[in-house]
Specification:
Elements: H1 21-29, H2 32-46, E1 51-61, H3 90-103, E2 107-112, H4 119-134, E3 138-142, H5 148-157, E4 161-163, H6 170-176, H7 182-194, E5 198-200, E6 203-205, H8 211-222, E7 230-235, H9 252-265, E8 270-273, H10 282-290, E9 295-297, H11 310-320, E10 323-324
Parallel strand pairs: 1-2, 1-9, 1-10, 2-3, 3-4, 4-5, 6-7, 7-8, 8-9
Helix pairs in contact: 1-8, 1-9, 2-9, 3-4, 4-5, 8-9, 9-10
The protein binds S-adenosylmethionine (SAM), 6-(5-methyl-2-OXO-imidazolidin-4-yl)-hexanoic acid and iron/sulfur cluster.
Iron/sulfur cluster binds next to loops.
Length: about 325
């Protein structure tokens, strides 16, 4: 496959920021083959279709979170067996980052179960970020809501991406979280952008939301002043003890439709097939890559739940002819 920059004959649709909800719903609901073809054509115009970006996650501060996100095993309100821990040491984080780099990851994402960090926490995470950056990895953090000065401090330390998800549509949001508002999430995203940190923002499917909710989430993302650099699409991991533990399983076709629609709406973004891959068949993942997903979490653990074994991902990549993106 020729590199895109060397092949100007591909038509690149110009990114739009004015999508109507009805337009997105029609895109999402068109015949599956048409949708996937359109998404794959857009994907090829912007990316090498056989290259996947690998991010590795680490939970730097586990459990005991005061928020009530109905999907989350780290909320203090649910009995999920996740223990509350203190912030990991910088050296422990750097050791994991070295391993991640050796395994082939190009981005290292540090997650903390906080509603919002204290300034002294931000200082400690800033040290981790500088250390990870010095290893030659891209850095990402997800620490909850940020104040402007905190975002600036993280940028100064070398933070490339900040992950803060909208999770679902504004209309469905109240069914899932009551302890912070949709607007508060948008405000944090605006502060991250103002600090000139790339935004990583997406959501979760399979929580009982409607097609219109999925379309509305994608509309909000695609109508931000700049499209997020990364858009994680998580399939709900149904964790025992959380309110969503018994949620009905999502039809994988709906997952692929969500990814394809995200790809068409935000053509230059890395769309990440995020949580939930352990429960997906190889064919479902292959279909999601065809639909335009070009990033995954690589490593045997997400934050508290399992991710596919290295050997399973290596075998899948080999059978699909996929390559890991190099740094
Ligand atoms: N506490 C911070 C926050 O909420 O922004 C950062 C960590 S939080 C765990 C990051 C994201 O992980 C959530 O916004 C959600 O999208 C995703 N997530 C958490 N639990 C999940 C689950 N059980 N299944 C799928 N995604 C999940
Ligand atoms: C994102 O969108 N997904 C990741 C990351 N950002 C931080 C988290 C997935 C968590 C899945 C549940 C767990 O392992 O606790
Ligand atoms: Fe806390 Fe983040 Fe989990 Fe919500 S998703 S309960 S904010 S760790």
């Amino acid at each position: 496959m020729q590199k895109l920059a060397e092949n100007p004959s591909f038509d690149r649709p110009v990114p739009r920021y004015d999508w109507e909800l009805a337009e997105i719903i029609s895109l999402y609901q068109q015949p599956f083959n048409d949708l996937l073809h359109q998404a794959q054509s857009v994907h090829r115009a912007y990316f090498d279709p056989n290259e996947i970006q690998l991010s590795t996650l680490i939970n730097i501060k586990s459990g005991g979170c005061p928020e009530d996100c109905a999907y989350c095993p780290q909320s203090v309100r649910y009995h999920t067996g996740v223990e509350k821990e203190t912030l990991m040491s910088c050296e422990q984080v750097l050791e994991t980052a070295r391993q991640a780099k050796l395994s082939g990851a190009t981005r290292f994402c540090m997650g903390a179960a906080w509603r919002s960090p204290k300034d002294k926490d931000v200082d400690r995470v800033a040290d981790m970020i500088s250390g990870v950056k010095a290893l030659g990895l891209e850095t990402c953090a997800t620490l909850g809501m940020l104040e402007q000065a905190q975002a600036e401090r993280l940028k100064q330390a070398g933070l490339d991406y900040y992950n803060h998800n909208l999770d679902t549509s504004e209309a469905f949001y109240g069914e899932i979280i009551s302890t912070r508002t949709y607007q508060e999430r948008l405000d944090t995203l605006a502060r991250v952008r103002a600090a000139d940190i790339h935004v990583c923002c997406g959501g979760i499917v399979g929580m009982g939301e409607s097609v219109a909710d999925r379309a509305a989430l994608l509309q909000t993302l695609a109508c931000l002043p700049r499209h997020p650099g990364s858009v994680p699409i998580n399939l709900l991991v149904r964790v025992a003890g959380t309110p969503l533990a018994e949620q009905e399983e999502l039809d994988p076709i709906q997952l692929a439709r969500t990814i394809a629609t995200a790809r068409i709406l935000m053509p230059a973004a890395y769309v990440r097939l995020s949580a939930g891959r352990t429960s997906m068949s190889d064919m479902t993942q292959a279909m999601c890559f065809y639909a335009g997903a070009n990033s995954i979490f690589y490593g045997e653990k997400l934050l508290t739940t399992d991710n596919p074994q290295f050997s399973r991902d290596q075998s899948l990549f080999a059978r699909l002819g996929l390559r890991a993106q190099r740094s």
